[in-house]
Amino acid sequence: MKQFKQDKENNKIKTQRIAQVVVLITAFVLVISQIVISNSFSTSGETVIKLERETKILEEENKQLRAQISQKGSLYYIEEQALVRGFVELRNIISLSSAIPVAFKP
Amino acid sequence: MFLAFCLAFIAILSRLFYWQILASEKLAIEAQKQYGQKNIIFSLRGEIKANDNATLVTNQTAYLVYVNPKKIKIPPGQLADQLAPIFLEDKITDQESTESSKSNFDKKDIMEKEIERIKKSLSKTNLEWIALKHKVEKTSLEKIKSLGIEGVDFEEESKRFYPESSMAAHLLGFVGSDANGEDKGYFGLEGFYDYELKGRSGFTIAEKDARGAPIILGGTEQIEAINGRNMILHLDRTVQFIVEKKLREAVIRYGAKEGSVAIMDPKTGGIIALSNFPSYAGGNWQSFDSGLYKNPFIADTFEPGSIFKTFVMAAALNENAVKPETICNKCSGPRIVNDFTIKTWNSKYYPGTSMTEVLEHSDNVGMVFVGEKLGGEKLISYLQNFGFGQPTGIDLEEETNVPLRPKNEWRPIDLATVTFGQGIAVTGIQTLTAVAAIANGGKLFKPHVVARIQNDNGSIIEIKPKLTRQVIKPATSKVLTEMMVNAVDKGEARFAKPKGYRIAGKTGTAQIPIAGHYDPTKTIASFIGFAPADDPKFVMLTILREPTSSPWGSETAAPLFFDITKELFTYYKIAPEP
After folding, report:
1. DSSP state of B395
2. Number of domains chain B contains
3. Nearest to B570 among A44, A66, A93 (CB)
């Protein structure tokens, strides 16, 4: 009976030690991971800034191009260009109100 | 030794308590300032587009130029001399593109004022930061940078850009600043829909390292900006372009002081075009006389004159008080009402004239007969139902209205003169809306400029046409349309009418009241009508103020109406009848 109690106590201590080792290893792995990750991300801020700048430049270019397209599509610009290219306003427009039959049935 | 140790321990503990408990909030904020980076995300103001999705107003990047007076090493006068020409550069370019303001422009005077303004700003030497100029364009900014002046810096902001230049300026309004220097819309759509257009700015707070770069694993907080809503209008920019061109030509040709034209879709109340001349440029509104900002078509009232006869006739026909063939038995000469003599415009009288001919001849005496047949109470009631004396509710900021006089204040002479459009003040938009009801089987629609609103997420809100009321019966509308077609075909303006089309219309020549009497030399010429008469595609009102070539609407406003109509028939592919 005494032996049985002793074995039980030993097993309990053994389990606790294993748990302690697992916790320690886990903590160690996590600490190392954090160091590695933090280290690898430490210079990424620069990259983020660079990407943000590039995004901003592209957005700005996009905005400018949109404005340019709108201006080139404006009626005032089209009229100006049409006049430069020799287009004139048509005054005598003929309306064909109905289709003329090609042939009548006999 | 032990006591000293205890005292040191208590001192450290107290200090820690102070830092951690008492001052924690304040220190957290201080720390946040050091490692936290707050960036404002500005919302973009919504765009305004024509019915074909072509952009009428969009945004362009501009810059705020500011100085730190303590860092400036050159005299304020020298700095002002260098910056003023650059600041004015955009302004001058915009100004020169606008014919109407060319004559008033004095570059030298403006330059001196600008130099003075900059000097005055720079005199506030106790400040750390002085804004010198908002909305500076990129090209100008590059020039400022190339000067290499120490203490001059800039930050980004947004500016309104108008691809169609000054097109529809009165309709669009412009963006200025409020008391806090924030963008704010004034007049027209910018004023009316300011809240919807401006959106809401957001911000991000991110932790940064010693070099100012963001720490990826640090905490971030972000409130997204919500861009303003886009407005898609009923406005057809081709029609607007035609109207602006023809109106400008007409004002010059007829020597008028100013002019207005508006076109509406009678089936929806949508405003297809609206223009006034002279006008201004929304991108450079500061350089124009502030009297030009409000839209005279909706903000000014006028005595309508003979175009008003259509509404009184509509009321009388609807009440069966008269029929087109009813004979006027009091039209053989002038009428005397309350000791006032009412004459026709040309002193010609038509005994036994029919109601159709009353409109055809624009017969004032005949209209007094119509008013008497209808009765004062019903006449006033119909005027109210047509929308006179109350705002139309159009979605533009500066609409005005003159209420009708109270019912008990209408004297017999007032009831008589109102039948031919005298003694009543109306706006252009009220008149246009009322005629649209005649064109649309008697249905009065609320006028509307915006057709759809597009949210930041792309979803669309349709603004459905709003029927205000049925003013006259569809049958009455048909009968009156025929009478108006006859008035065009046989009236004074028939020479200008395009051949092969049925157009319903009515001329108007109103005198201008000044100091209790009418100015004998000045008139407001107008023409109101719709086409094609049987299935109207558009309703149009043309107004010319104080034309000098001829005072008559039939010789000025009517040719302008028909000139625009010819172009619209081609644009809408409406062929003449064989």
Report:
1. S
2. 2
3. A93
